[in-house]
Structure formats: structure tokens, C-alpha cells
Design goal:
Strand order of the largest sheet: 4-10-9-8-7-5-6
Radius of gyration: 22 Å
Distance between the termini: 41 Å
Number of strands: 17
Number of helices: 14
Shape: globular
Length: 408
């Protein structure tokens, strides 16, 4: 079923404004998505109606807050097909989720000679924690080669796994620069066949298409809530329960213990042992509202809309003289990174911004990938449920104006 984009747009107050005298075209969704009224209202209702700490008090406000907070966890669990809500650990963002794996599991198990396999297309969040773990333990990192079309060389991946001592594999479900959709289920199965554990950076996947963690069979996945209509400062780590039980906590303090004494402490069961202190209560309750919103649309419909819009954008952009598009045409996530010959990305973005078109420019927290691509930065247009073909047309028109302005 096609999304009713006109109706959806009515739920997003921020979209109905002018930017520099032009109607706003927001195409920076891979960085963060806008928030519907339903999510904003969930924040207001919490603070106006039942603001209280969770998991502590037995008074009515505390019980209401705890119920809403834990219901949000249950909604997220259902959304990704988790067998239990207790496998969903709330974090500030996807970055924190990945670091929890590095500090809570990987550093305690790596030995000199062990191998971590990842790739050069990764966001810094899915690279730097593993680099730090390798430096601290004497392990080494091997990188899957990138093919010219922006996909991972699966033959090279097979070869790296066959070389032995692979303890851990980490890769993105979808590249935040190239838009490449990696074959998660197949890559996970190959890693498991050699005894390695697998973490998937699902930040650019879960907001955009159906995901079932049981089907993927990854050991952990990391997700950022603010990229799927939820407030900033929200995300989660999902893990297999036996691994969450093995992991050490990253933070220590209130709420994460089963008992504490002057001589030591015992940790609570997951997810509590990873959620020390007062959490970001209101924003996670609003995360639950965001999940309700997306579930109501149907993730198959969300993916179909983005796929069609991205294909339309590829056609329009590729027709521009001097345009270079990065990554495979299809299948791909709902974003396109590009460069225009003769125009620095920052200059192009300035012209687009003057015409009300918001895109992202820079290295997108993927500097090693920029080195592989041999570019200082790229432009990136990323799409979501409220974007339209007319907005893609506005993007193209603004690029053509920039080419005229710079004589490119």
C-alpha cells in the first residue's frame, strides 16, 4: 500500500515553514529525522501528567512512568521481532550501543593474535571502538575490500574468515554514505560458521525497512532512535540473552545491581545491569510513540516509498552533467551521496541552503571511506516517509542553479 505522504506531512510541524524565503525541503534524514506531533505530544503528556522516576517508587506517578517506559521497550522488541523485551538495552544512541559491546564483551575476550573483521565503509561508531579494543588487547583488524560499485567483496570476506582466528565481525546493514545494503543474514551465517560473534550497525536499516533479529541471527544490533522519528538521545542495543548475560556493565551505580555491599556488588539481570542511574524517561516513552507511528504505516510500505523515491532521485541526479553518484544503484538504502565536478560540497550546500534545500555535506563520520573514494567530502541527500518527488525536483533545480552560479 502506498504511503499517503500528504497526510503524513500534516503530522510534522517543522516541515511547514520557509527557509531563506523558500519552502523547506529537508533531505538530511540519515543524520536525524523530524518528529511527528504524536511523538512531541508523548513528551508533553509525560511532563505534564506523570513525571516521576522509574523502577523505584511505588506511588501512582512512579508506577505510571515505569509502565509507560517499559511498554516502550516492549514496543521496540515487537518491532524488531525480539523474543523478549529484556534483550533491548536502552542507550543514548547507536554509538553508545556499539561501545558497550567493545567495553563489556570484546575487551574481556580478545587475545593477541585474535582477529576482528570489519570494512572500510563503516561509520566511525562501528570502527573506532574495535580499533581501541584491538590496541588494548593485541588483536588485529582486517578489512573487507570494497568493490568499485560500492559493495563489499564477499569473496574477500570469505577469504578473511578462512584465514583463522576471527573472533569478532562488525559491519553495517546499510552504509550511511554509499547506501549499500549488505547481505546481513548471509554474512552473519558465514561468521558464525568460523565461531565468530557478529555485531551489526543497523542504524540505517531498522528505521527504513522490516527487520527481524531472529531471522538475521546477529549477536548484537545497534540502533539510533532519533533516526526513526524518536527524540535525540535515544537508541538501543539488542543482544542475544546469553551474550548480554556474559557482558560486563559499562556504567556502575543506581538501579543496575541486584545487591550491593561494602565488599562488592552483584549485577542485576539484563537489561537493568546496563542502565545505571536515572534514564532518559520521557524520550524513551516518546520512542515508543515513534514505533507506534512507523508500525501503523507498515515498514514494507515505508521501504517501498523510499525505494521508489531513491530510484527517481538517481534518475534525475545522474542526468546532470558532471555528476558522480556513489554506491550501487539498486538495491540501496534511501540516500544518495554525490559530487558535482567543479563545486566543492560545502559551496554546493550553501547554495542549496539559500534555496531552502537541506542536505548533508562532509565526511559523514566515515573518513576512511572518503580516503578509499579519494574525495575530501561528499554531498548526501537522504529520504524518509514525508519526502516527495517534488522535493527531489527542487534538489535538482537547486544543483543546476549552483552549476550556473559557479560556472561548473
Amino acid at each position: 500500500m502506498a504511503l499517503d505522504v500528504a497526510r503524513i506531512r500534516q503530522d510534522f510541524p517543522i516541515l511547514h515553514q520557509e527557509m531563506n524565503g523558500h519552502p523547506l525541503v529537508y533531505l538530511d534524514n540519515a543524520a536525524t529525522t523530524q518528529k511527528p506531533r504524536q511523538v512531541i505530544q508523548a513528551l508533553v503528556e509525560y511532563y505534564e501528567g506523570y513525571n516521576a522516576n522509574v523502577h523505584r517508587g511505588i506511588h501512582t506517578l512512579a508506577e505510571r512512568a515505569t509502565e509507560a517506559y517499559e511498554e516502550a521497550r516492549a514496543k521496540i522488541a515487537r518491532f524488531i521481532g525480539s523474543p523478549s523485551p529484556n534483550q533491548v538495552v536502552f542507550t543514548r544512541n547507536g554509538t553508545e550501543a556499539l561501545n558497550m559491546i567493545a567495553y563489556g564483551w570484546l575487551r574481556h575476550r580478545l587475545r593477541p593474535g585474535d582477529v576482528i573483521v570489519t570494512s572500510g565503509m563503516e561509520h566511525h561508531s562501528n570502527l573506532l571502538p574495535w580499533q581501541q579494543a584491538a590496541q588494548a588487547t593485541g588483536a588485529q583488524i582486517k578489512y573487507i575490500e570494497l568493490l568499485p560499485d560500492g559493495t563489499l567483496n564477499q569473496e574477500h570476506y570469505d577469504r578473511l574468515l578462512s584465514e583463522g582466528n576471527v573472533r569478532f565481525v562488525a559491519f553495517s546493514g546499510a552504509s550511511n554514505v554509499l547506501g549499500t545494503l549488505n547481505p546481513v543474514k548471509e554474512m552473519v551465517a558465514k561468521a558464525h560458521a568460523v565461531g565468530a560473534r557478529v555485531a551489526v550497525d543497523a542504524v540505517q536499516v531498522v528505521p527504513h525497512m522490516p527487520v527481524n533479529v531472529v531471522d538475521w541471527d546477529a549477536d548484537w544490533i545497534a540502533v539510533a532512535g532519533h533516526k526513526m522519528l524518536a527524540p535525540t538521545g535515544t537508541g538501543f542495543l539488542w543482544g542475544k540473552m546469553e551474550l548480554l548475560e556474559e557482558m560486563e556493565p559499562t556504567y556502575f551505580g543506581g538501579s543496575m545491581i541486584s545487591e550491593a555491599h561494602l565488599t562488592g556488588a552483584k549485577w542485576a539481570q539484563p537489561p537493568a545491569k546496563f542502565e545505571a542511574g536515572t534514564p532518559n524517561i520521557a524520550d524513551f516513552i516518546a520512542f515508543g510513540a515513534a514505533v507506534d507511528y512507523l508500525a501503523g504505516l507498515g515498514m514494507e510500505n515505508v521501504y517501498a516509498h523510499e525505494k521508489a523515491l531513491t530510484e527517481y532521485a538517481w534518475e534525475r541526479l545522474s542526468a546532470i552533467d558532471g555528476m558522480r553518484l556513489f554506491g550501487p544503484r539498486q538495491p540501496r538504502a534511501g540516500l544518495i551521496s554525490f559530487e558535482v565536478a567543479g563545486i566543492h560540497p560545502h559551496d554546493l550546500s550553501a547554495v542549496l541552503n539559500a534555496e531552502g534545500v537541506a542536505i548533508r555535506v562532509g565526511h559523514h563520520c566515515a573518513q576512511p571511506l572518503m580516503e578509499i573514494l579519494d574525495v575530501p567530502a561528499t554531498n548526501r541527500a537522504s529520504f524518509y516517509i514525508y519526502n516527495t518527488q517534488a522535493e527531489v525536483d527542487r534538489l535538482v533545480e537547486s544543483i543546476l542553479h549552483a552549476k550556473e552560479f559557479f560556472g561548473a
